[in-house]
Each structure stands twice: as C-alpha cells, then as structure tokens.
Amino acid sequence: MNPLGTVPIFVSLTQKHENKERGKIAFWTSINVLIILLFSFFAGKYILVFFGISINSLKIAGGLIIAASGFALLTGKFSEHKGMEGKKIKEDVKTRSEISLTPLAIPMIAGPGTISLLYCLQ
Asked: What are the CA-CA distances from residue 98 to residues 13, 21, 64, 77, 102 (Å)?
C-alpha cells in the first residue's frame, strides 16, 4: 500500500477541481480502500476456495507482484508498471466524473499486492 506514491497522481488528476471537491474525492477514495480491504480480509478466504487457489500459490503471486512493483520503483518505470502510461488510459481517466474508485482506490492504493499481503497476514 503506497498512499504517498499516489499523491502525485491524485494531484495531476484533480488539477482542475476546487479544494472542496478534492477533499470529497480523497474522502471517498479512503472509504473505497477501507471497504475493499475489509472485504478482502474477511471474504478473501472463501473467494480463493471457490476458485481453487491455494495459499501457497497466492503467496508466490503476491510476492512476485510486490517484487515487480519494487523493481519498477527502482528503474523509474512505476507509472508504466501501474498501467498509467497509455494515452487512451490517460484520456479515459480525465473524462471520468468519479475517480475515487478507479484509478485511485484500485489499483493505486489497494492493488493486488496489498490484497494478497493482507490475506497472507490472516
């Protein structure tokens, strides 16, 4: 979970918004992250059982995601790694009326690495 790393993206996406609207977007982003993480923590086990995913495969996949994110930070390609480099994606985000769920809550703050790490802490 990297809320500080999301700040530059939040600022760039809300440049044209007023301070009150920025606060509202930040509030709803935090509520969305809380709901996503609580749902993952309590229902994640049952979802994995339903899809037949073992805890060991989840640990390996989560570790690979976290390692890939760390490597992307080291190489300076974190925005490409998070899927924010495409021109089509940038235009789509700018035309959305609500950005608190995507891209801010998912995948920027509560991404797959955070969700898998949270499940492994159970």
From this structure: 11, 11, 31, 26, 8
* Cβ(108)–Cβ(81) below 8 Å: no
Task: For tokens 């982003």, name the residue.
Answer: 29
Are 100 and 9 contacting, i.e. CB atoms less than 8 angstroms apart? no
Q: Is the peptide bond before 112 cis (omega within 30 degrees of 0)?
A: no
What are the boundaries of each domain within the chain?
A: 3-120
pLDDT by position in tens, the chain (length 122): 778 888 888 888 888 889 999 999 999 999 999 999 999 889 888 888 899 988 888 778 878 888 887 887 788 776 665 555 556 666 666 666 688 888 888 888 888 778 877 877 77
Count of all residues that appear for the chain in the document: 122
